[in-house]
Amino acid sequence: MAKQLTIFMENRPGRMKSISDVLLENNLNIWAFTIQDRGEFGLMKLIVDKPEKAQLALADCGFACVLKDVLAVTAEKDQPGNLDKLTTALLEKGVNVKDAYGFVSPKDRQGICLMEVDNPNDLGLEETIAAHGFTLLTGKELYEL
């Protein structure tokens, strides 16, 4: 399963820079991120090449952060209607998507959709997704991109 690093941070100038400094100092590569405003605080969600190392480095510098399992889904081919097919597959399994964002693989330019869902380890989810033309990437597959 792919891991998303979620960091709780103050909503003020320079805080994002502090996080990127820690990641750079530890030679960690950010592939995707999103920031969500929560008033005085916010959440930064990242996909990095070495999530456990990133969590330890940030925690050592005083950042509150956690790793969460997320789905990393890629389509067999890029075409109109992929999101509709993917959401159909998720609906068949009764999966609730809480958060989603995407990025393009630096290696093969393939689109990858990252989704935080209620039950990412649901039995049969991978087969249902595959039946609709998608691949659920393992953490290892994602981090080797």
Brief account:
The chain is α+β, with helices and mostly antiparallel strands and 145 residues long.
Structural class: alpha+beta
CATH level 3 topology of the largest domain: Alpha-Beta Plaits
Percent of residues in β-strands: 35-45%
Rounded radius of gyration (Å): 16 Å
The end-to-end span amounts to 15 Å
CATH architecture of the largest domain: 2-Layer Sandwich
Quick one: how many beta strands? 7
CATH superfamily of the largest domain: ACT domain
Uncertain stretches: none
Helix content: 25-40%
- Global mean pLDDT: 90
Walk me through the topology.
Blueprint: E1 2-10, H1 15-25, E2 30-38, E3 41-48, H2 51-60, E4 64-75, H3 82-92, E5 97-104, E6 111-117, H4 125-131, E7 134-136, H5 139-143
Antiparallel strand pairs: 1-3, 1-4, 2-3, 4-6, 4-7, 5-6
Helix pairs in contact: 3-4
Describe the protein.
With about 140 residues, the protein is of the alpha+beta class. The protein folds into 2 domains: about 1-70, VC0802-like, CATH 3.30.2130; about 70-145, 2-Layer Sandwich (Alpha-Beta Plaits), CATH 3.30.70. The protein is built from 5 helices and 7 strands, in the order E-H-E-E-H-E-H-E-E-H-E-H. The chain has helices spanning about 15-25, 50-60, 80-90, 125-130, 140-145; strands spanning about 1-10, 30-40, 40-50, 65-75, 95-105, 110-115, 135. Strands 1, 2, 3, 4, 5, 6 and 7 form a 7-stranded antiparallel beta sheet that branches. Helix 3 packs antiparallel against helix 4. The two termini are about 15 Å apart. The relative contact order is 0.21.
